[in-house]
Amino acid sequence: MNDRETGQTSHASSWAPVSRRATWVFVVLGVVGILTVLPTVTSWSDASRMATIQSLVDFHTLSIDQSVFHRTGDKVFVDGHFYSDKLAVPSLLGAIIYLPLSALGFKLGYGWNLAYYVITLLTVKAFWLAGLVAFYRTLAITPLTDRKRIWLTLALGVGSLYFTWSATFNNHSLAASWVAIGFYFLMRARQGIRTGRSVFAAGLFFALAGGSDVPILAVFGGFLLYVLTDRRLRPHAALYLLPLPLTALPALWVNYRISGSLVPVQLVTAYFQYPGTPWKPSALTGAGMNRGAFLAEYAFHCLVGKRGFLLYNPLLFLAVPLLLRSSRSSRFVRESRVVCLVTVPIVGYYLLFSNNYGGWSYSIRWFVPLLPLLFFFLHPILAGPSRTLKILFFTAFAAGTAIAVIGLVNPWSWLNLSPYPLIANLRTIPDLFN
């Protein structure tokens, strides 16, 4: 595809350039990223993914029986063997990085581990930086000056849980990065810049996000409606859809190799029921629907209570009202309506069908992929004349940065120390110096 096919005269290089000032900011963020990767496996979740990576590369099997991480609780038991219960895409990506490391003798293991550090750095953290570059470039379609685009990018990059979860190997940060990149390409298409290629790239990154974090497929679906309802983008809808089966193939292949079925192993309750299992059927997400007083209490603590996602991302107290206002009347009314459309079912799904707050984690990790979309709607504060709103923005930015940095101590918070992850992490700090 080229610009002539769309009837546009824009060129890819003429939209959303990275200024010299921004380039230096991203260099600094890159250094910060290098220094903020936790070099150790600390949770069942990342142990489960490392088990698959190690098993594929070192033992040429999907079974994690021989892995040093085989004792993780995040696993399923199928036909006499244990397997990770995690979606395949992040682990396959990590295996690509681990392959040469293992060949050079740098093996995965518990404790401070170079292989784990490099895998996380070149996947989760690298995409965190790429997602921030994409977010900054997307802001070019707003009235913000370059300096203000940088401030809002920093707000997302270090002033939210996006920063915290970029420190460890997990699918939520990857999905957030891929959502940010997909949104950037869709806005390129909206501007008429290499429309076909941009629509394809948007579909690819949204599909990757959904392929690593299934509820985020709602983002893919929401922006499919966006494409179909835009007469300029509608002719390219097939290009948007094309990546979806391609990104689904790895997961389907893994499911088939494990169980002989294309049904995701995560959906088969029986696979979690083995001697010594930590999983009661009622504890699995999707096993039952929350109701009544439990639903009210659970929703409260997910959003504003002890795990409160809004409290741990204070800028959302500004972003959510601005999103709702934009959905009624603004230059970005269609985009804001899609973001509302996908946010409600994603948040609603977890509030209704989960019951464990995502296990031991710093706030609600499930909602992290929504942050780039929500933070985009903060731009009117920095573009507008209100000094009061700007003070509120930078106050929330400072608070969010402090919260995110405390989260870096351990995104998989040790909640036996406190049911409040922030307090648990603060209590963990003295142990870092022992």
Shape: globular
So how many helices? 20
| Structural class designation | mainly alpha
Mean pLDDT: 92
The percent of residues in helical segments reads 55-70%
Helix-strand string: HHHEEHHHHHHHHHHHHHHHHH
Brief description of this entry?
This protein is mainly α.
Question: What keyword list fits this structure?
Answer:
20 helices; two-stranded antiparallel sheet; mainly alpha; globular
Protein architecture, described:
The chain is mainly alpha-helical and 434 residues long. It has one domain. It has helices at 3-6, 20-35, 44-58, 88-103, 114-138, 146-158, 161-165, 171-190, 195-212, 217-228, 237-241, 243-259, 292-303, 309-312, 316-326, 333-353, 371-376, 379-383, 387-408, 421-428, and strands spanning 75-78, 81-84. It has a two-stranded antiparallel sheet with strand order 1-2. The N and C termini lie far apart (59 Å). Mean pLDDT is 92; it is low at 1-13.
Topology overview:
Layout: H1 3-6, H2 20-35, H3 44-58, E1 75-78, E2 81-84, H4 88-103, H5 114-138, H6 146-158, H7 161-165, H8 171-190, H9 195-212, H10 217-228, H11 237-241, H12 243-259, H13 292-303, H14 309-312, H15 316-326, H16 333-353, H17 371-376, H18 379-383, H19 387-408, H20 421-428
Antiparallel strand pairs: 1-2
Helix pairs in contact: 2-5, 2-6, 3-4, 4-5, 5-6, 5-8, 8-9, 9-10, 9-12, 10-16
